Every structure is written in C-alpha cells, then in structure tokens.
Amino acid sequence: MALILIVDDDTAFRMTLAETLDDLGYQVRQAGSCEAGLASLGDGGIDLALVDLRLPGDDGLAFLRAAATMAPGLPCIVLTAYASGSNTIDAMRLGAFDHLTKPVGRDELAQALARALRAHQPAVAEAVDDDTQAGEQMLSNSAPMRAIFKRIGLVADSDNSVLVLGETGTGKELVAQALHANSARAAGPFVAVNCAAIPAELLESELFGHVKGAFSGAASDRLGRFREADGGTLFLDEIGDMALPTQAKILRVLQEREVTPVGGRQAVAVDLRVVAATHRDLEAEVAAGRFRADLWYRLQVITIKLPPLRARDGDVALLATHFLRQHVHGRAKRLAPAALAALQGHPWPGNVRELRNTMLRAIALSEGDLIDIEHLGLDAAPLSRAAPAPATEAATAAAATAPVTVAATPAGTAEIDWDGPLDRAVELLESCMLRRALAAADGNRSEAARRLGLSRQQLYRKLAQYDIE
Ligand SMILES: Nc1ncnc2c1ncn2[C@@H]1O[C@H](COP(=O)(O)OP(=O)(O)OP(=O)(O)O)[C@@H](O)[C@H]1O
User: Fold this and answer.
1) Of the residues 402, 421, 450, the one at which a domain ends
2) Mind telling me which residue stretches traverse the membrane in this protein (predicted)?
C-alpha cells in the first residue's frame, strides 16, 4: 500500500484529504509545514507527496527543491487554491508531477495519484532562479491551461524553437514571455516583433538590421531585432503573415545562426532562441504554398497550442474578476449574477483580449459599484454583434462617452444563409464586421483595425478582399 505524505498548513483540508486517501486505500502521513514535511520525508518510506504551494515560512516550492535532493524521483503533486501560470511553471520545472487546484475532486485525485505512482519518474530537478517570473501573470484554473503551464515548465530550458498556436487573444505572447522568463536566457533580452505589422519592404532591415547608406534613408547602422535579441529570446508574432522571400531569409538565419545586415558583407553570429506564433493554420498555409514547409518543420520542433477561452472551464469568471480587481481603482465594483452569466455564455471569438476589453469598457460605463448586463455591451446573438471592444484604455474611455450608432450595412448578417456553405457565411460575416467597425471608427482605419483585433496590414488586406472603400 503506497504511503502518501500531505504537506499543507490547512488542518481541516488536510484531515479531509487524509480521509479521502484512506478511503482510496492509501496510507497517509501529514505535515503542516515545509520543515515538518521534510522531516517526515527524512524518516523514509514515502511514495508520493501532495504539497500545498502556499505554506507559512518556507513554501511548497522550497519543499520541492529540497525533496529533489533528499528523495530524487519522488513523485510530488502540487496543490493550490489558486493556480497561476508562474507557480505551475515553477513547480513543473522543479519536477512536480502534476498540479491540482483546490478543491480537489475525489476522481481527479484518484486519477492523478494512479498516474503519478505508475510513472514514478526520476525528478527533473534543476536550480531555479527565484527572480525568473513571467512579466504578466497567466491565470487559469482550467485543465487544458494547466496542461499548457506544465508544458511551458518542461520545455522552457531547451533551446529548440517553439511554435505557439492559438486563436487571436488567447495569450500567445504571454506564453512566449513565460518561456523566456523561465529559461536559462531569462537574464538576456526578450524581443518581440509583430511580423504582420511591419511592411514587407521594411521587415528585412527591421529583423536583420542595415548598414549606413544601404538604402536611401539608412542614415546610420541599425542592429536589427535578431541581434538585439542576442543572448535572449526573439518572439516572431504572426509569422504566418510573413512574405515567402522573408521566410527564406529567416530559415537561413535559423540554420546558420548568423545574420547579414541589409547592405552589409559580413555575417554576424547570433545566439538566441526563437519563439514564433500565429493564429493561422500553418499546415494549411504550407499546403496552400503560402508558407515554406522547411521553415515550418524547423519552427514546430516544440508546439504549444492554446485552447480558445470558450474551452477553458471556469476561466471566464476567474479572469473577469481578475480584470475587475486589476483595473478598478478606488471603490470596488462587483459583477451582477446576470452579467456573470452573460459573460459565461458568450463565445469570446477575441478570447482573453476581448474579455479584458469588455471588462475595461464595463468598468468605464458603470457608474455605481455594480456591473450589470447592459454595461457589458454583449449582444444576445453573438454572431451579429458589433466589432470587439476597443483595445486601449483611452479608446475604451472614448467609446464610453461616445456611444456608437452603426447604420445598417448592405452586407448585413441577416443575409447569412445558416444552412448554406460555411465559406460564404464567413465572408458575409467578415465583410459585415469590417463595415461596422469602419463606421464605428468614423472611417479611421487604425481605430477600426484595433476594434477588430487586426493589424493595419491585415485590415487593408481584408478591405481589398471584400472590395470595401
Ligand atoms: N491567461 C491569461 N491571464 C491573464 N491575462 C491574459 C491571459 N491570456 C491573455 N491575457 C491577456 O490578454 C491579452 C492578449 O494576450 P496576448 O497578446 O498574449 O494574446 P495573443 O494570442 O498573442 O494575441 P494575438 O494573436 O492577437 O497576437 C493581453 O492583455 C494579455 O495580458
């Protein structure tokens, strides 16, 4: 019978957990602190440890660190009341086998224990620099995101390229930052380039730099993003939007590990890790001849695919309250139950970014301390709703004082044939949303792009595609 050590300072929780473990047929030892847990570990015989991350004094991470030396290979499952990206990532880097969020269901616990005891892998403990924190916290309590946090923890230290996939606003940049912050390169620079936002003719000089006089306007030498990221991580966002000739050049740099600035003769060595991201289906782009297969192979050595927000159980409520707490200054505001239900029922095509913007707008629009359904600006029928909320706080405030009235458009969503071909329906929806966003932004394309969560280049392409003036 396996002997399980529970390390948790919450006596009531520990007792209940011990009873459940007893019920499941395990022997149990209990400890209320990191020190007591390590002492118990020193007594020997422990097959697995269940460890709360938040402990008074030395915390759960300190326990994991010490356990890796005292009992290498001991499977540890981390328990927290509140799973954040960084604590899961840290725990996984320290060799934790799994991560469970309290309250822990009996079935979930039974499965996790069975898995951990079966695998009983040697711990992959490595020294962790306590200062390595992702800039912004990635929050989630959902199972698919917990799996993502674990993956980040496991691959952060490798130097292989990582391809981050996922719909717009799912947090791809945050993943790239977390990979960097938890890697051995954390002390080096993190340089992000949005490949879709830079005109194709400038992208090369932006990425590889140029020498003075390389072209008219090149008044001085420019390092370029690859060399700026030397010793750190280069994040190539929207790589699926990059032109084929630039793709060829990126591939060469990744192969040779050196860059030649535009107009320069001398190649310069670079030492960096590349993380690329796209909301596009790169495999389909490869099949369509718009993305180089050899670059795709090289980038997708490690792939992290973020689930859309609608597939993250419980996260809408968690994130909505988080954004409320983060952005309400002064008197606290709370969400009415109907507003929470509306948030939970919304499909969130713009994912976490759209939720964040919706909350910012609601905060600006609600005068009292209650955020109700009318402050959210979510339409009952999600597919015919207006463009997503503005992206910046300034724009949010502006939108709050100037409510947008949008004229009926020639290509309204009412024309969509719901039983017809999907392509046609998507085209109608897109062109309708483009027109509405342009109307709402008084024809200002930058503002319309922001409302739609597109780069200006993407917007221009779409306007041309639908022949919209
Ligand atoms: N799990 C999360 N917890 C808290 N904030 C999040 C989370 N995921 C995303 N965000 C926030 O949502 C916004 C969008 O995130 P991010 O820019 O990383 O998405 P993205 O997938 O890179 O978007 P795009 O495809 O448009 O480039 C940011 O403000 C980010 O801080």
Assistant:
1) 402
2) none
Q: How far apart are CA 312 and CA 448, in angstroms?
A: 28
| CA 31 to ligand 1 center in whole angstroms | 38
How confident is the model over 258-308, as pLDDT tens digits?
A: 999 988 888 999 999 999 999 999 999 999 999 999 999 999 889 999 999
Give the range of the structural domain holding residue 469, as residue numbers without chain letter. Answer: 404-469
Cα 272 to Cα 53, 97, 286: the distances in Å are: 33, 29, 25
224 lines ligand 1 (CB under 6 A): no
Q: Among 402, 429, 457, identify where a domain stops.
A: 402
Domain contains 336: yes
Do 314 and 263 lie in a common domain? no
As for how many domains the chain has, the answer is 4
C-alpha 430 to ligand 1 mean position (Å) = 22
Q: Is there an atom of ligand 1 within 6 Å of 138 CB?
A: yes
Nearest to 95 by CA among 115, 75, 110, 80: 75
Could you read off the pLDDT of 19-69 as tens digits, one per residue?
Answer: 999 988 899 999 999 999 998 888 888 989 999 988 988 889 899 888 877
185 plus 285 within the same structural domain: yes
**Preceding peptide of 189 cis, ω within 30°:** no
pLDDT in tens, 385-402: 333 333 333 333 333 322
Q: Looking at the structure, tell me whether residues 160 and 301 fall in a common domain.
A: yes
